[in-house]
Specification:
13 helices; about 400 residues; about 35% helix; binds fe (iii) ion; binds N-(iminomethyl)-L-glutamic acid; globular
């Protein structure tokens, strides 16, 4: 299975050390063999032996690495449109959650859905993401909050990886909120003693919602230390609703990522940069509030990713092109920073070195944008979608 892409107006390589960050090559060609990139460069330099491969003429369009959506909660049933409208009317996320709504209502709707139905809803969501150019997706549990229900979520998530071309990376988020009928002390003990041992074999990472109304920094530390012991990478929902010190904990533990960061400070940025923890920005979840200080984080040297946070409460977003546009318009990233963060940044957050960039030997996950440049993603927000998506060299 070999394929040649010609007529590439702009090839975004994300090559390390590029002065323009995204390592653009104009008038490019790219060759794929057996699912990996074997050659790329200026079309005029194309070696003769590659010229007789099957060809896809991109007709001047931009080619970028497939989007790596490194933070989603896409396995859920039900919807919370009514709550969304109430929040726009002035009610707070925290108050709705404390009154038994919010995450609790999605936990109830998810529990009520038979597995086949939960799987169908979630797979449809993932396929729409693929249509928007996402080729690798991280999926968290966290709408189960009981051992078997968390296991079921992780199994449904893994099933999406088998049933679709998408690569799926799973994260155990049993510590999403404390179930209404229990105390946080008892629930943290249940997570450590029972849920983690059952869920760790089904997940690559463990995440904790460390915030006001959810888990404290000390509770998060207890859970994450146990998760590390179980062999998992660590992530944190940090400084989303309030500033709690979760980012400093992420840095202290050498977490793979600290996500949200809406209320992060300059000291938090310095700690993330020093620890090499990726800062994951979620502009879909920041709508209607002050966005994360993206430029401060970038200037402090934090490696940034952007992701959808796809969930029914704070960010019912499936499209990475929309997220790139929001990261530019709402958070002040440059088009190059936002594009890098949506591709190589996401891959870095997930510890995947073989994707998110165009290099000989990298996985041929590619998006041909229906536009001449990656800049169009934010210049024409909402209008630029993939023309073709390639997963491991196969045109879908
Ligand atoms: O990333 N903050 C915690 N978790 C999700 C929201 C989940 C929900 O409201 O259902 C988030 O924003
Ligand atoms: Fe989230």
């Amino acid at each position: 299975m070999s394929l040649l892409l010609t007529g590439i107006g702009e090839l975004v390589t994300n090559a390390t050390g590029s002065p323009d960050l995204v390592g653009s090559i104009n008038d490019a060609a790219l060759a794929v063999d057996e699912g990996t990139i074997v050659w790329f460069g200026q079309a005029s330099d194309l070696p003769d032996d590659l010229r007789d491969s099957d060809t896809l003429d991109c007709e001047g369009r931009a080619v970028i690495p497939g989007f790596v959506d490194c933070h989603t909660h896409l396995v859920f049933a039900g919807d919370r449109a009514d709550e969304f409208a109430r929040r726009l009317g002035g009610e707070s996320y925290e108050d709705i959650l404390a009154a038994g709504g919010g995450i609790h209502s999605t936990v109830a709707a998810t529990a009520a859905a038979p597995t086949l139905e939960l799987s169908r809803l979630s797979t449809d969501r993932a396929l729409r993401m693929l249509g928007h150019g996402t080729t690798t997706v991280e999926i968290k549990s966290g709408y189960g909050l009981e051992t078997q229900a968390e296991v079921r979520m992780l199994e449904v998530a893994a099933g999406i990886g088998s049933a679709t071309p998408l690569d799926v990376v799973t994260t155990f988020l049993g510590a999403h909120v404390v179930p209404t009928a229990t105390t946080s002390e008892d629930y943290v003990r249940l997570i450590v003693d029972e849920m983690l041992p059952a869920c760790a074999p089904l997940a690559q990472s463990c995440d904790v919602f460390c915030d006001e109304g959810a888990f404290s920094v000390d509770e998060a530390r207890t859970i994450l230390m146990a998760a590390r012991h179980a062999g998992l990478e660590l992530r944190l929902h940090a400084e989303q609703l309030a500033h709690t010190g979760a980012t400093q904990l992420a840095a202290e533990l050498g977490a793979a990522s600290a996500d949200h960061l809406d209320n992060a400070t300059a000291a938090d940025a310095a700690a993330l940069a020093a620890a090499g923890t990726v800062g994951v920005l979620l502009p879909g979840a920041s709508l209607g509030q002050a966005p994360a200080p993206a430029r401060l984080l970038a200037e402090a040297g934090v490696t940034l990713a952007v992701a959808t946070d796809c969930n029914p409460g704070t960010s019912n977003v499936e499209s990475m092109p929309l997220i790139v546009a929001l990261a530019v318009h709402e958070m002040g990233l440059s088009p190059a920073q936002a594009t890098w963060a949506a591709t190589r940044g996401g891959a870095t957050a997930l510890g995947l070195d073989d994707r998110g960039h165009v290099s000989a030997g990298a996985v041929a996950d590619l998006v041909v944008l229906d536009a001449p440049s990656h800049v169009d993603l934010s210049y024409r927000p909402g209008s630029v979608e993939p023309w073709r998506v390639l997963k491991a060299g196969v045109v879908l």
